Amino acid sequence: MNMKTSPALPELPDWTLWAGRPWIIAFSGGADSATLLDLAARNRSLASGIEAVYVHHHLQSIADDWAVFCRERCRELDIPFTAEHVTVDTSRGSVEAAAREARYQALSRHMLALNNPVLFVAHHQDDLLESALLALFRGSSLRGLTSMKPEKPFCNGTLARPLLSLTRRDIEEYTREHGISFVTDPTNRDNSYDRNFIRNRVTPLLKERFPDCPGSAALTMAHLAMEDRVLESYLDDLVSRCAVRLPEPAAPGLDLAGFSPEKDRDTVILLMRAYLRKRDLSLSHGKLEELFRMWEQDTPEKIGFVLENGIRIALSGNRIFTAPAVLEELRGCEVRLLPPENAPGTELLGQWGRFRFRIVPAGAASPALAASHDIKPALPPEITLRFLPELSLKLRFPGRQGHSLLKNFWKENRIPASLRGFYPVWIQNGAIMGVWHLRDTVSGREAYGESEEKDERGFPKPASSGWRLLIRNENGEIPA
Questions:
Q1: Can you give the pTM of this predicted structure?
Q2: Averaged confidence pLDDT in the chain
Q3: How many helices (DSSP H) and strands (DSSP E) are in the chain?
Q4: Minimal CA–CA distance to 131: which of 105, 149, 106, 151?
Q5: C-alpha angle with apex 271: 454 to 303, nearest 5 degrees?
Q6: Predicted pLDDT of residue 9
Q7: Which of 32-46, 70-84, 134-148, 324-338 has the lowest mean pLDDT?
Q8: Are strands 303-308 and 334-337 parallel, antiparallel or unpaired?
Q9: DSSP 33-80
C-alpha cells in the first residue's frame, strides 16, 4: 500500500516496508537528504530506533559548517546524530569513487552495531538517470546499468532508496512547501567531475527535448532490473548444476565440459561472470574474454589463469577454480606447529617467514571455544605441514600395493595446480599421515582409524577434516 505525504509529491513507498527495524539516515545536509530526514522523522513511529549519520570527508573546509548544520537540524527533529570523520585516499583513481568508498565504510560500521538495520540514502530519479548514463558511457553490463535499486541487501541489513519515485524538482518543491532549510555543496558546479558534467550540461539538454526523461529512465531501469532478476536466477541455477566441489577449504569450481565454444559463447561468458560474482569477483571485459579464449582452445589439457584482486582465476581443462595467488608463495614451506604453553590441546601454532599458521578444531575459531568442546579427533601434540612438495614424493595409501607418487595422486583426484596449496602433506613424528583434508596414508589410518563419514568424492573423511588450518600474513587471513 502506498501513501501520500504531500500534495506536491508523487506516491512514495510505504515506510511500513521497514517497520520494526532500526533506521540509519545518511544525512549530508543537502536538499535531497534533508527531505529524506524529514520524511523519516514523520514515519519514525514505525522504526525500532532512528539515528542520522553525517560523514565528514575533510575535502572542503566548509564541511565543518555543514556538520554543525546537520547536528542542529537533527536536534530540532529530536533524532540522535553522529558525525563520522573519514580520510579519503585521493592518490589513486577517482576522488568521487574514493569518497563514496570511505563514506559507505563509515556507514557500515554503524550498521554492524545494530540488528538487521536499514540504511536510507537520498538518491532520486535524476540521480538514477545520471548513474545510468555514467554506466552506459563506461561500458557497463546489465547489472551495472541497474545497480541503483530501490532496495538491496547491504552489510548486515538493507540499503533503501525511498526517494527514487521523486525527481529533483519534486524534492525542491517539498523543501519549499515545508520550509526545510538545507546546504548547497559548491563543488556541485564543478564540471571536472563526471557526474556534475552530466548533471549540469547533459541532462538539461535532454530535458529540453524529453521533459520526463528521469521518469522514463526510471521505468526503463525497472524493466531491465526485472529481466536481470530472471537472468540471474537462471544463471544461479546453472552455476549450481555445473559446480565442482572439492573438500574445504577450496571453493567450488565451475565445469564447462557440456558447452560448445561455437554455439554457447554468450552463455559461457555470462556463466563465468555469474560464477565469479559468487566469489565476489568482477572481471573487466578484456579479462573475461581472455579467460574464454583459454577455454575455447581445442587442446586436451587447457591451462592458464588471470589475476584479479590477488585471486588467481585458473583454468584446468574444462574447469575453472579460484584461489589466493599468495598460496604459490608457500612452495617449499615446511612448518612445525606446536601447542601454546598456556593452553595445550586447544590449538597448534607455527610460523614460516611472514606467514603465521594455526590449527584449531573444525568450527572453532578461538582457543576458548575449542577448550569448551570434546574435540574428535583430539589435536596431536605437534604437526608438520609441507606445502607444495616435490611431485616425486612417495605416499602409501590404504588398499594399495606399494607407494604412489604425489603427482599421480593429484591427477587421480583431479586437484588442479592452482588449488594444491590448500592441501599440504602433514607429518607427525616423522611419518607422513596424509594429504590435508583429502586422504589419510597408511600411517594416518593406523594412528586415527577410519572415519565412517564420507567426503564429497565418497572417500572416508581423513583425520585432518576434523581440524581447521588458518593462515595469515601481514595483510590478514588468506581467504579460503
A1: 0.79
A2: 90
A3: 14, 22
A4: 149
A5: 70
A6: 58
A7: 134-148
A8: unpaired
A9: HHHHHHHHHHTGGGSSEEEEEEEE-SS-TTHHHHHHHHHHHHHHHT--
9, three cell numbers: 509529491
Domains in the chain: boundaries: 15-214, 229-321, 329-477
Residue 174, C-alpha cell as written in the block: 517539498
- Identify the CATH number of the domain defined by range 229-321: 3.30.465
Same fold across 15-214 and 229-321:
no
The set of residues, in sequence order, having a beta carbon less than 8 Å from that of 426 and lying 6+ positions away, is 383, 384, 385, 386, 432, 433, 434, 435, 436, 464
Check if the beta carbon of residue 254 is closer than 8 Å to that of residue 320: yes
In Å, how far are 423, 434, 437, 465 from 249, measured between CA atoms?
A: 9, 16, 8, 10
Cα 478 to Cα 131: distance, rounded to the nearest angstrom: 35
Residue with the three cell numbers 538517470:
129
Helix extents (H) in 242-389: 265-278, 285-296, 367-371
Residue 82, pLDDT > 80, answer yes
Q: Could you tell me which CATH number the domain at 15-214 has?
A: 3.40.50.620
Residue showing cell 552506459? 136
Q: Is the peptide bond before 150 cis (omega within 30 degrees of 0)?
A: no
Phi, psi of 10 (to 5 degrees): -65, 175
Q: Is the pLDDT of residue 313 over 80?
A: yes
Which of 126, 107, 115 is closest to 26 using CA atoms?
107
Kindly give the pairing relationship between strand 439-440 and strand 431-435. antiparallel
Q: In sequence order, what DSSP letters do the residues of 94-126 get, joined into one string?
A: -HHHHHHHHHHHHHHHHHHTSSS-EEE----HH
